[in-house]
Amino acid sequence: MQLETLQKDMIAAMKAKEKERKDAISSVISAVKKVAIDEGCRDDIKEELVDRVILKELKTVKEQIDSCPADRTDLIEEYQARYDVISEYAPKLLSPEEVRELIMEQFAEVIATKNKGVIMKNVMPVLKGKADGKVINEVVGELCK
User: Fold this and answer.
1) How far apart are CA 83 and CA 98, in angstroms?
2) Residue from 136, 73, 79 nearest 103 by CA
3) What span, in angstroms and rounded, lies between the C-alpha atoms of 100 and 144?
4) For 52-87, what is each residue's pLDDT tens digit?
5) CA gap 3, 141 in Å, rounded
6) Which end of the chain is least crowded, N or C, by CB within 10 Å?
7) 16-55, pLDDT tens digit by residue?
């Protein structure tokens, strides 16, 4: 996802007077800019960084939905609307089957060691941002048995 695309969509939401959509996109843009500044790439923000921040924001909103008291339906609706908007921009993640296939292809010699720590150390840099960390951990755990 390009930062420019997010900015154009935010402007479109502002013109259409869609406050919830504008707020959700705006929060993602500010999070992307903050991470870019923290990582020292303020002017050249790469798609990988934007995708990583979108996934992190998506996870945060999901946690807000899960931890919100059931009687606070107003908050749940607000969080769900934000989650729906952010999920439109989230990159498609690999399924557990795709993760297993990729690991078996590229890391067959590492899997032979049956050392989960070594496998994760080799696999995570390749799959980071392409698959959920929990899914990767589960697949590697199954392969180590």
Assistant:
1) 25
2) 136
3) 12
4) 899 899 999 999 999 988 899 899 999 999 999 999
5) 36
6) C
7) 999 999 999 999 999 999 999 998 887 788 888 888 899 8
- Specify which residues 128 forms β-bridges with: 131
CB 60 within 8 A of CB 52: no
Beta bridge partners, 131, equal 128
* DSSP string across the chain: --HHHHHHHHHHHHHTT-HHHHHHHHHHHHHHHHHHHHTT-SS---HHHHHHHHHHHHHHHHHHHHHS-TT-HHHHHHHHHHHHHHHHHSPPPPPHHHHHHHHHHH-HHHHTT--HHHHHHHHHHHHBTTB-HHHHHHHHHHHT-
pLDDT value for 1? 66
Residue pair 86/24 in contact (Cβ under 8 Å)? The answer is yes
